[in-house]
Amino acid sequence: QVLAYNRRSYETVAQRLVVTVVPAPDGEPPYQGEFLVGNRDVEELLPEGAREMFLQAAAGVWERDDLRVLNVTSALDRGGRVPLPIEGRKEGVYVKVGSHGAFSPCLASAASPQSRFRCALGQQPLASCYDTFAPQFAVRWCNLTLLQVWPSPTVPGPTGGPGVLEDGGSFQPPTEAPALDLLPGYLVTLLVPLAVALLLCLLLGYLMCCRREGV
């Protein structure tokens, strides 16, 4: 349920939005790459047309045509700083793209340890292909992340034991428990502390009254 209100009149409007999430027919892509786009806001990459343009640009460096966008996240949610109120400054967007094909040599070289070392020195990473993202998308190649996600083995579900009620059966409550004689336990619980307290009182009285000087 989405709630919105007018800041001037404080009028509120509610709308119920039903979102149905279904698994992909061919499963989750095992090869996933996450790109940081520095010249875009998250709202600019949510429309389908903008995502198609990004996929076309990504296909040029990935060399695959089965790419699809898996996630779009604002850089502010990853610890990024709020941009200065200057025209042209954007917050940045992380776009995760998946494919069933392996990474291209271009992406592998951009995420290699040599490229990470160059990024640590403030230099551009190694790239063996033409940047097809420019100029529409300014990808920060030093923030490129490549992941290989393999499906986890299915865990068998729990099996019903003898205490599980079968389908169509009726619950039979247990029979009434026999009456228990609680008097002995009650007397032990009550009399033992009283006897100990009485013994301590007698001992304390003897020490205070009968052990004085001259008695």
TrEMBL record:
Q: Which UniProt keywords apply?
A: Membrane, Transmembrane, Transmembrane helix
Cross-referenced InterPro entries:
Sarcoglycan_alpha/epsilon (IPR008908), Sarcoglycan_C (IPR048347)
Transmembrane stretches in the record are: 186-209
Task: Give the top-rank taxon of the lineage listed in the UniProt record for this protein.
Answer: Eukaryota
One of the Pfam families matching this protein, by short name: Sarcoglycan_2_C
Gene Ontology cellular component annotations, sorted alphabetically: sarcoglycan complex
Ranges for domain Sarcoglycan alpha/epsilon second: 30-146
Read off the PANTHER family from this record.
ALPHA-/EPSILON-SARCOGLYCAN FAMILY MEMBER, ALPHA-SARCOGLYCAN
- Descriptive protein name: SGCA protein
Q: Which organism is it from?
A: Lophotis ruficrista
Origin organism lineage: Eukaryota, Metazoa, Chordata, Craniata, Vertebrata
Gene name linked to the record: Sgca
